[in-house]
Design goal:
4 strands, alpha+beta, Glutaredoxin, 4 helices
C-alpha cells in the first residue's frame, strides 16, 4: 500500500489552514511515518505535483489522501474517515460528521 498526502498552498503563498491542521494531527498521532509521499498543490503552479494529482482524480479540495494498493486507488477527502479506514485509529462518528458538515456548508444536520 502507498499513501500520498496532498496539501495545498494558496494563491497568496500561504499554506492552507485545514491542510496545516491535518498535518499537525498526523504529526501528533505519530502517523507521518505511514505517509509515503507528500505532494503540494500550489494554486500558483497548475503543474505542481499536487495540482496534477487533483486534476487527474477530479478532487477539488485539499487536503486529501490517495491510497494505492492492488485494487487501485482510493481517494479520501475526509480526514477522520481516512484515519478510521486506513490508519485504523479510533475516531468518533461525531468528529467525522462535524468535519463533513464544516466542509460542506450546504448540508444540514438531521
Amino acid at each position: 500500500m502507498k499513501i500520498t498526502f496532498v496539501k495545498k498552498i494558496l494563491a497568496n503563498g500561504e499554506p492552507c489552514a485545514k491542510c496545516a491542521d491535518v498535518e499537525a494531527r498526523l504529526r501528533t498521532g505519530n502517523y507521518l511515518s505511514r505517509i509515503d509521499e507528500t505532494q503540494v498543490a500550489d494554486e500558483r503552479d497548475p503543474e505542481s505535483d499536487g495540482m496534477r494529482t487533483a486534476a487527474r482524480l477530479g478532487v477539488e479540495r485539499a487536503p486529501f489522501f490517495v491510497v494505492e494498493n492492488d485494487g487501485g486507488e482510493v481517494v479520501y477527502t475526509v480526514f477522520f474517515k481516512f484515519l478510521r479506514e486506513v490508519l485504523e485509529a479510533p475516531v468518533s462518528n461525531s468528529a467525522e460528521a462535524s468535519e463533513i458538515l464544516r466542509d460542506n456548508p450546504d448540508l444540514d444536520l438531521i
